[in-house]
Amino acid sequence: MVNQESINASPTMSIRRIGLPVVLQDFGERYLLAVYLSGSPPALWREVLRAVTTHAVSDATSVLVVSDLLTFTAPDADVERWLPDIDRWIDATNRVCGSSRLT
């Protein structure tokens, strides 16, 4: 569902990862990781990210963006290992949102 916030968002908005992910919580067999984003993305961007990560080949689950913080659960806490996945999710989302025409 596209709401007014999505319609008002710039279609050229480009969100980036700021810094390295950090481990917020250890659940034993899963870890909650988080990384800051360069801004608080609009609702459409968050919806696209959810779709991108749902169809990605990855062990990450429960991907969520709240304000400018992207969180997800993963089977390991190796933050360096997750950098390519996070950047791929963000880049794919930026491409989809940048090519959409909201009129």
Q: Your description of this structure?
A:
By secondary structure, this protein is of the alpha+beta class. 38% of the residues lie in helices and 28% in strands. It has 3 helices and 4 strands. A 4-stranded antiparallel sheet has the order 1-2-4-3, covered by helices on one side. A hairpin with a 4-residue loop joins strand 1 and strand 2 (31-37). Helix 2 (43-55) packs across helix 3 (79-99).
Main sheet characteristics? 4 strands, antiparallel
**Radius of gyration over all CA atoms, rounded:** 14 Å
Query: What's the rounded overall pLDDT mean?
Result: 84
State the helical fraction.
25-40%
Distance between the termini: 15 Å
Low-confidence stretches: 1-11
Q: Strand percentage, roughly?
A: 25-35%
> Strands across the major sheet, in which order?
1-2-4-3
Described by the principal axes of the CA atoms, the overall outline is globular
**Count of helical stretches:** 3
The SSE string, one letter per element, is HEEHEEH
Can you count the beta strands? 4
Structural class, from secondary structure content?
A: alpha+beta
This entry's quaternary arrangement is single chain
Can you tag this structure with a few keywords?
103 residues, 4 strands, 3 helices, 4-stranded antiparallel sheet, alpha+beta, disordered N terminus
Quickly describe the structure.
With 103 residues, this protein is of the alpha+beta class.
